[in-house]
Design a protein that fits this description.
It is a single chain. By secondary structure, this protein is mainly α. It has one domain. Helices cover 74% and strands 0% of the residues. It contains 12 helices and no strands. Helix 1 runs parallel beside helix 11, helix 5 packs across helix 6 and helix 8 packs across helix 9. The longest helix has 31 residues. It is globular and about 50 Å long.
Length: 274
Amino acid sequence: MDAVLLVKAAIMGIVEGLTEFLPISSTGHLILAGALLHFDDEKAKVFDIAIQTGAILAVILVYWQKIRSTIVALPSDEVAQRFALNVLVAFIPAVVLGLALGKAIKSHLFTPGVVATTFILGGLVILWAERRQQVAPRINEVEEMRWTDALKLGLVQCLALVPGTSRSGATIIGGMLLGLSRKAATDFSFYLAIPTLIGAGAYSLFKERGVLSVDDLPMFGVGLLLAFISAWLCIRWLLRYISSHSFEPFAWYRIAFGIVVLATAATGWVDWRS
């Protein structure tokens, strides 16, 4: 395996881990990084989705106590059953709409105008949501959520099918707008990411298995490992950050990144249809 390719895989893994759970769109950053590294062929596109599994393993590690206690209590505890049901209910809309509309979205919405617009609009929505957080939230812990809250969040997650929206941004900010505290919205976003991203990664690997070979294992291994390490560091940092800070800096970052998207598209440096 080419050492240069492994270095590119490592960089992409770090980008994935650092951006997957922040409300700034990992897809947009991977497209930009892939263009800069000339790592944007068909195999690289599968790689970008597959390494999300490494980031998800970091979520499982950070939240292992909660996940383990829920699984153990599932047969007899109503709170555990309600929590598991909420995650399942929130997961279903993205599966249905993703399978139904995935090709059309890829064909028509991966344009600089759409990506830049979603980045900038997302930033403005974050600023609005943070202003509304001055009102006391209705839900302070994920255990307090009803299935209707979960369904609404699942529908909000579907907005992330539009490139540049950010899955974590949609679920965290959407949760805050639906009455969840910043912490509850962030926690549920992480739990919902587990089935969503594992499912997307497995589906992508199965669907595009024809472009992969055994020789690609080192590249995928490096990407998964670096995505795991960087995501673990990022999640731990984010959970500390939200205890005393707002998401406003990410809003301004999104607006600036939207301008970067327009600039790179205008110069022809990045193909945002990748």
